[in-house]
Amino acid sequence: MSPESExxxxxxxxxxxxxxxxPGARVAVVTDNAAAxxxxxxxxxxxxxxxxxxxxxVLIGGQLYTEDESDMLSSLVIxxxxxxxxTTSRPAPGQLRTIYEAFRAxxxxxxxxxxxxxxxxxxxxxxxxxxxDIDIPVRLVDTRSAGLGQGLGVRAAVRAALAGRGIDxxxxxxxxxxxxxxxxxxxxxxxxxxRGGRINPTSAMLGTMLQIKPLLSLHEGxxxxxxxxxxxxxxxxxxMTLAGEALSHAEVQAPVLGIHHVSDPHGARxxxxxxxxxxxxxxxxxxxxxxxxxSAHVGLGTKAAIVEGPTGRPIAHGHxxxxxxx
Length: 326
What we know:
The protein has 326 residues and is an alpha/beta fold. The chain has two domains: 27-56 and 91-179, Rossmann fold, CATH 3.40.50; 181-321, Hypothetical Protein Tm841, Chain: A,domain 3, CATH 3.30.1180. The protein is 38% helix and 20% strand. The protein is built from eleven helices and 14 strands. It has helices at 39-48, 72-82, 93-105, 123-130, 148-162, 167-180, 191-195, 201-209, 232-248, 265-279, 292-298; strands spanning 27-32, 51-54, 58-60, 63-65, 86-88, 110-115, 138-142, 182-186, 215-219, 222-227, 256-261, 284-289, 303-307, 320-321. The strands form three sheets. The chain has a seven-stranded mixed sheet with strand order 12-11-13-8-9-10-14. Strands 2-1-6-7 form a four-stranded parallel sheet, sandwiched between helices. Strands 4-3-5 form a three-stranded antiparallel sheet, covered by helices on one side. The termini are far apart.
């Protein structure tokens, strides 16, 4: 199949036009933009009437940006290249509450709110505050993932909601799809992760001194080290092998292969097409820019592969936990 078109930032969606739920749908689905949904998925979910997403702000050089601002990406890339501070924040509880209230007013019976790993962000905490005193149940799902690993959970939840499933089934679908998704991340340096407080400063310093180009993953919501190649060439080779093995052993028909990048769509597409040719020609290739809220913590040159699971070759098998700051 042909790859999805490149993801472009889109604003968070707030329901509230007074429409009744889609016939048969009782549960609405809410997420945050760390799910890195491809544009075709985003458009489809928004058109379904059961879905909304909230933005997480990014602070670049003292200026607050959201994904829908046209100069946000260029500002982020420049800041990362210059080593200037880039920080991120959870969405305001009031933003989520507005969305929850709109779905309640539209006649939905329940909401499933599907979010970025609580180990990486305070978004789930914002959602807990936002759901207080809402007159319908709001079930929170910690995907323990990020990027399209989270996005696959969102897709499963939306599909279950449109099939008329109840809150338990919709939440379970989101959790299972995110848990099954395989995540592999190649970063050029640990420095950006160190600045964001995602890894131990000593580990970052040693990694830089030894020219380590680590391959990372997510396990139980935390960043973990899969392997520690000592050159860019070796890291690229192991990235392709590990992602390819997970893809070739994926147990679903035509699995999704997502390739994330930071301002390098051509390089990402080349990686994805090579993996399809070598390992799984029937897979569905999706090339997505990492949202700024994630790019800010991994840095320029980062590539990530997301494989729809389950798979007989899980990427994080036998991992070592990377030291993470509390």
